[in-house]
Prior knowledge:
alpha/beta, 14 helices, binds adenosine-5'-diphosphate, 2 domains, five-stranded mixed beta sheet, 39% helix, binds magnesium ion
Amino acid sequence: xxxxxxxxxxxxxxxxxxxxxxxxxxxxxxxxxxxxxxxxxxxxxxxxxxxxxxxxxxxxxxxxxxxxxxxxxxxxxxxxxxxxxxxxxxxxxxxxxxxxxxxxxxxxxxxxxxxxxxxxxxxxxxxxxxxxxxxxxxxxxxxxxxxxxxxxxxxxxxxxxxxxxxxxxxxxxxxxxxxxxxxxxxxxxxxxxxxxxxxxxxxxxxxxxxxxxxxxxxxxxxxxxxxxxxxxxxxxxxxxxxxxxxxxxxxxxxxxxxxxxxxxxxxxxxxxxxxxxxxxxxxxxxxxxxxxxxxxxxxxxxxxxxxxxxxxxxxxxxxxxxxxxxxxxxxxxxxxxxxxxxxxxxxxxxxxxxxxxxxxxxxxxxxxxxxx
Length: 372
Ligand SMILES: Nc1ncnc2c1ncn2[C@@H]1O[C@H](COP(=O)(O)OP(=O)(O)O)[C@@H](O)[C@H]1O
Ligand SMILES: [Mg+2]
């Protein structure tokens, strides 16, 4: 009998919440039953963004922001249930990612941390459904990066028996999964490539007043500045070998400002260069770590950035670059569906991480269960 799970993802773009209601066959294959989204109210978005850096009275503010986040989560759940004509009792569990505000695994003599704001107890109370939350910390405790956690899901949904597939998620940060053909040598890899929308959104908002560069049209109107691109690509993160992960801790507006120099006077060129940075870093990583890939499945909101998609295709001759929609799952649903899948794994006491992707000492059952 099919079991239903809800996945809730709110990523580093801070654009809001994507929710997916998915039904799973006994074999674990998901079918998306519904998708709902909610933007963050501007004050909550501003506070979540502010909490990415050190500030006054953070513990109190973080607790209130987590409650605000859960209010948005609860609204998405109500919407998903109403659209599907289902009730709380029809859902086995919710996987709630929470909002990452700090991500520093592997630092501090190997006892680093990753921090997702969330209040799963409140969510269980409001939704009347079991909640699985705090997926990343167990992987960090086991020596991993705590990220990316989506490769196992990518393998289950996008993996191919006959050839290697790359899956590129373009959220606030870009992450790549390399899925070898079944029976081929080599493990599944998964790691962060660098910034995707986090810096492009920031620059676009600052100079055009728009929250993101729709279709990449503004970037397409500018010229890539090679010296600026080189200054950005000189950051040691890009040359580091996987496993590796990053976040707004590194790729924040100050990082960009420190590299702009005189190029700041040409905002459209900076946008073009930021877009090229994402395309070039991801294309290089695919060539280095997934050279056998014949197809690159792109998901996350960045898949809707036509200019970025065209740049990826141009930098990867011989690779078929496509939106995940062409493989049956629209780009905005992939990560939320992954957290429904990860919640199912946890409920079944199955591991959710891949040690080959996160660098953890082994596979672990992730997260904690908050019964309804
Ligand atoms: N039509 C579009 N054109 C270009 N970029 C888009 C479009 N729609 C969404 N995006 C980008 O996708 C981002 C959201 O992607 P998402 O996958 O939700 O990231 P995250 O997981 O970090 O929240 C937005 O902030 C925006 O930058
Ligand atoms: Mg998002």
